[in-house]
Write a structure and sequence with these properties.
single chain; Mannose-Binding Protein A, Chain A; about 35% helix; globular
């Protein structure tokens, strides 16, 4: 009689153990590629949207490199370095305003300077700022001015601060004309315009380049 009772109990224990083993193996199974792709879907934003809003995602290596970038903000309009030497007339090229801003005036300074010093020259000598660009027509106008010099890039007034691009004159960041892969894959916290094609690239602020002032 006891043997008859033990047999069903043994069978019940074996079945339960099989179910527990099956559940454990299911819980520890790796995700399939389909599961992974579903988890990652929608995790990143559009690069174009980030660029237009002025936001940029910095990599760790980029932050380390930019830590040696010597740009210091010139947020105070009265900080007009007394040692700044204004360019001679033969060092500059003048450009009248665009149809959308007839009162604007642009000056290209051929003598290369670091971004910070270029901004100071624009302030002290022309009572303006490094140029901000808000439309393709202005970008084209400035680009035509830049192709007259034998330089690959010139400074414009864009700079990266706290993960966002801003203009030195405080105007709205509402237009971009980045080169391929920029600004996400770029290096440096200042913005230069390429004389070949007119596209923008990030560059280390301590680089010496010609520059465009606007007033």
């Amino acid at each position: 009689m006891k043997g008859c009772l033990l047999l069903p109990l043994l069978l019940l224990g074996t079945v339960s153990a099989l179910y527990l083993e099956k559940d454990a193996s299911h819980m520890g199974s790796p995700q399939t590629p389909a599961d992974l792709s579903q988890d990652l879907e929608g995790s990143g934003g559009q690069e174009g949207e980030l660029a237009l809003s002025g936001e940029v995602l910095d990599s760790g290596g980029e932050q380390a490199e930019d830590a040696h970038d010597d740009y210091e903000g010139d947020s105070d309009p009265d900080d007009l370095d007394e040692d700044v030497q204004c360019p001679k007339e033969e060092e500059t090229v003048q450009l009248p305003g665009s149809p959308e801003c007839k009162s604007c005036r642009y000056t290209m300074v051929r003598t290369p300077r670091r971004f910070k010093n270029a901004q100071r020259v624009c302030r002290r000598c022309y009572r303006g700022n490094l140029a901000s660009i808000h439309s393709s027509s202005v970008n084209c106008l400035i680009h035509r001015l830049c192709v007259t010099i034998n330089q690959a890039q010139v400074w414009i007034g864009g700079q990266l601060r706290c993960g966002r691009f801003i203009w030195t004159d405080g105007s709205c960041w509402n237009f971009t004309y980045w080169a391929a892969g920029q600004p996400t894959c770029g290096r440096g916290r200042c913005v230069a315009l390429c004389t070949r094609g007119g596209r923008w690239r990030r560059a280390p602020c301590k680089r010496r380049l010609p520059f465009i002032c606007s007033r």
